[in-house]
Amino acid sequence: MISFQQVEKHYGEFHVLKGINLSIKQGEVVVVVGPSGSGKSTLLRCINRLETITSGGLVVGESQVSDKKTDINKLRRDIGMVFQHFNLYPHKKVIDNITLAPMKVLGLTKKEAEETAMYYLEKVGIQDKARSYPSQLSGGQQQRVAIARGLAMKPKIMLFDEPTSALDPEMVGEVLDVMKALAHEGMTMVVVTHEMGFAREVADRVVFMDKGQIIEEAPPEEFFVNPREERARLFLNRVL
Ligand code: ADP
Ligand code: MG
């Protein structure tokens, strides 16, 4: 589904991704962990070309992401992304936040889009908030709206960049539960998170990054119990 081959990425002089090789199969849940500044967000953002790679290959589905012939809008339709700061439209009601892209991009009628929106709002457990504005919701509820908005586009891949980092601790669980359910339904997911409990329980594979490189890649039962690399060990000692 996603394949990085010797991917390099520079921000000007700064070498942010170094020789990234990573393959993610359909239905796999990969959790990316590592210190701040190690390139996790950049790695994620390359997948839907929010960032362009400097060299190497990156294939998503059938398309080479950096190929000029690749229809970037189509690629992005298939990839949902959830950010740390929800990024909802503050002046639009919850339901209108969700119906916007399906109407505009997929060409759904308002009625179809609203039915879809309600289906996903129910799925994330907040159908009663459909007519509220984002500011009237808690952080956890806003993040669940953001997930519903992503799902309403029926993506093949969902990317999560620290989706619970901006939440009060008591709201983290409700968002992780939604993500867990999604994982169990077979969604292909790449998740950057500091929630090691989630990684341990839900990930098929944990990818540990440091200074722009993938240092270790292992199933969670291996990574958390017996990390091979010293840097991974030091990181786990700090965060667990
Ligand atoms: P992480 O998500 O692991 O914290 P990032 O991918 O956000 O790491 O960033 C990795 C490094 O790249 C950081 O040192 C950051 O300052 C730098 N960086 C990120 N985005 C840019 C940018 N647009 N321009 C220049 N440097 C950037
Ligand atoms: Mg980041």
From TrEMBL:
The keyword Protease does not apply. It is an enzyme of class 3 (hydrolase). Transmembrane segments: none annotated. This is Glutamine transport system ATP-binding protein. Gene3D superfamilies: P-loop containing nucleotide triphosphate hydrolases (3.40.50.300). It comes from Paenibacillus aceris. Belongs to the ABC transporter superfamily. Its EC number is 3.6.3.-. Keywords: ATP-binding, Hydrolase, Nucleotide-binding, Transport. Residues 2-236 form the ABC transporter domain. PANTHER family: AMINO ACID IMPORT ATP-BINDING PROTEIN, PHOSPHONATES IMPORT ATP-BINDING PROTEIN PHNC. One of its GO terms (molecular function) is ATP binding. It comes from the Bacteria.
